[in-house]
Please model this.
Amino acid sequence: MPSYKELIARKSELDKRIEEMRDIEAKEALVTIKQLIETFGFTSQQVFPWKPEEKKKVEAKYYDPESGASWTGRGKPPKWIDGKDRSQYEIKTESAIQYYSAPLDENNPFPVQ
Model:
């Protein structure tokens, strides 16, 4: 049975051979890819399809019942909420409401949920 040092030496040699073969096969694969692109006239979009990043729509946090306007809370506040108490315009969502199975302890930073 080979010793630990002999096995480590074999592993080191195998790792080196694996890396060499990987480099050789990667170069061959790249040549093949370039030939196929040239033969069929593929575009970069066809070879590497990508989608532009979609902007995530921010949900509104505030709603004016009189005008029906809403505001996300980002940027300059609209005139209907500027200088007013925003809590009366807040949109209550279920994700904002937390349900606990035990009473909250104000001193506990990790409340039981």
